[in-house]
């Protein structure tokens, strides 16, 4: 899959496209007829307290909604979660797109998230990255992150997580139940990179010693560390004007092609080219389930729209998957763990 020039996670849309040599994953033509979505108001259901599995408050889905999901999830052995900033919002990390509190409403993304600005003056961007990394490090994985860990640890479903997020809440939520050395640890693909991975701007190599994230970040300018080669160390995230990692995008595309179901969570569906990944599954007739309090660009295409938050919807969906999971050795994940 060609990566295309990307906008950072949930920043803004662009005209870049993602495609595979074997299939076109561009947006379906306007005259195509998408499968009708089946929305429901999960918020009207009565929540229960956490079971002994370690998850937070869960939601009981209405019977009709459970029937819709049970039909889709029955027999699923390869599950792909496609996640965006909304899944981490309940952990206290601001989303990127919100009229009042979105990160891009309060800063100039061209100044703090572009390769051109970095090359011109890296100090403001390093301070901004350290602030965001500290915010993420202080956050706790919520019930959604943990539920994915429960599903992986069960061992009966092969799990792949394709995330646009640059925090590490997926890693920490999963390892609460399924350590990395576990045979069923999920493939975890950060298509926009990670705040917790670093490399040299010039030579591209990781630093000999990883930078320490300050306990507090109040300065608007911080000098980034210097690589042994003399180059400046940068965060391993995708900025404006940079392409996505081709290997990771290929792995994500493969996961979409081979999935039994794709569960879309917490994303606006407009960030190119990553937003085209679920279309690979859709164009192959693979069911899409969306968990989002509000409609998104994906909603007209999905089979079921779960109108609730990630922290309530994902545990409910995972419980359905666990209840139906065949008690046999699952197929191996279709992708390996990779980060930019």
Explain this structure.
The chain is an alpha/beta fold. It has two domains: 1-10 and 33-93 and 142-192 and 243-340, Rossmann fold (3-Layer(aba) Sandwich); 95-138 and 200-237, SIR2/SIRT2 'Small Domain'. The chain contains eleven helices and 14 strands. It has helices at 63-73, 86-89, 103-106, 109-112, 115-120, 122-138, 143-154, 169-175, 246-258, 277-283, 310-324; strands at 5-6, 39-40, 47-48, 58-59, 78-83, 158-163, 187-190, 193-200, 233-237, 242-243, 261-265, 288-291, 304-306, 338-339. It has an eight-stranded parallel sheet with strand order 2-13-12-11-5-6-7-14, with helices on both faces. The radius of gyration is 20 Å and the shape is elongated. The model is unreliable at 8-58, 97-105 and 335-340 (pLDDT under 50).
Keywords, please?
single chain, 340 residues, alpha/beta, 2 domains, eight-stranded parallel beta sheet, 11 helices, 14 strands, disordered C terminus
Summed up, what is this model?
With 340 residues, the chain is of the alpha/beta class. The protein has helices at 63-73, 86-89, 103-106, 109-112, 115-120, 122-138, 143-154, 169-175, 246-258, 277-283, 310-324; strands spanning 5-6, 39-40, 47-48, 58-59, 78-83, 158-163, 187-190, 193-200, 233-237, 242-243, 261-265, 288-291, 304-306, 338-339.
CATH architecture of the largest domain: 3-Layer(aba) Sandwich
For the termini, the CA-CA separation is 15 Å
The CATH superfamily of the largest domain is known as: TPP-binding domain
Number of domains: 2
Report the structural category. Answer: alpha/beta
Q: Taking Cα atoms only, what radius of gyration do you get, to the nearest Å? A: 20 Å
What is the typical, i.e. mean, pLDDT? Answer: 79
- The number of helical runs is 11
- Main beta sheet: strand number and arrangement? 8 strands, parallel
Query: What share of residues are in beta strands?
Result: 15-25%
Physical arrangement of strands within the biggest beta sheet = 2-13-12-11-5-6-7-14
Low-pLDDT segments, ≥5 res? 8-58, 97-105, 335-340
Helix/strand order:
EEEEHEHHHHHHEHEEEEHEHEEHE
Binned, the helix content reads 25-40%
CATH class of the largest domain: Alpha Beta
EC number: 2.3.1.286
GO molecular function: histone deacetylase activity, NAD-dependent; hydrolase activity; metal ion binding; NAD+ binding
Protein name: protein acetyllysine N-acetyltransferase
Keywords: Hydrolase, Metal-binding, NAD, Transferase, Zinc
